[in-house]
Design a protein that fits this description.
The chain is of the alpha/beta class. It has helices spanning 21-32, 75-86, 122-131, 150-153, 160-183, 186-196, and strands at residues 2-6, 38-39, 52-57, 62-67, 96-102, 110-113, 138-142. It has one domain (2-196): Rossmann fold (3-Layer(aba) Sandwich).
Length: 203
């Protein structure tokens, strides 16, 4: 089974903010596939921390998860869920994809990477710390760089102009995630979609 984690903060006050674009992409994907999110208590056999919602896409054997803890606690949910899916000893981290906002990319720009550091993102730092590894794929979604206060900036909503680019990015990111889930070929997915996004795979 493949696991896709979309990062964001819980609660209606954070809906539509820059930091929640990972949630927005998973919401779009699940609607497109005609599925629904369920609470963790409906995940058969799982007894770990339950602050998340999930959708299971049966034909793709994929679990899409939105953590419902605050961003800097994301790893506390991802690590036990990964161990539940793949076993306590050998985590299949190449089957994990994390989708999150990135200040270093212009609004709407997308990048897929097979591994890498946290890049200053608290949610990614938490996941890397709890998994003990950064060797898992990720899809970064540009939200733009603020002039000064980054912490405040990511909790604000996109400007009207930025939202146009973000809506396009959400649809493009959905296509890329579905491609990866269907093929399992991350390198091929990077080549196809970075070219489509007018970016080289190693930009």
């Amino acid at each position: 089974m493949r696991l896709v984690i979309g990062l964001g903060n819980p609660g209606p006050q954070y809906q539509g903010t820059r930091h929640n674009v990972g949630f927005d992409i998973l919401d779009h994907l699940v609607r497109q596939e005609g599925s629904l999110f369920n609470s963790a208590r409906h995940l058969d056999g799982y007894r770990g921390p339950g602050a998340f919602s999930f959708a299971h896409i049966d034909e793709l054997d994929a679990l899409l998860v939105k953590p419902e803890a605050f961003m800097n606690r994301s790893g506390m949910l991802v690590e036990p869920l990964a161990r539940f899916l793949w076993g306590a000893e050998e985590l299949e981290l190449d089957h994990l994809l994390v989708v999150y906002d990135d200040l270093d990319l212009d609004p709407g720009r997308l990048r897929i990477r097979p591994h890498g550091g946290a890049g200053g993102h608290n949610g990614m730092r938490s996941i890397i710390d709890h998994l003990g590894s950064d060797r898992f794929p990720r899809l970064r979604v540009g939200v733009g760089r603020p002039g000064t206060d980054a912490a405040r900036y990511v909790l604000e909503r996109f400007s009207e102009r930025q939202q146009v680019d973000i809506d396009i990015a959400i649809a493009e990111a959905t296509d890329a995630i579905l491609d990866w889930l269907r093929t399992g070929d991350l390198e091929g997915c990077m080549t196809r979609f970075h070219s489509r996004w007018n970016q080289g795979p190693d930009d």
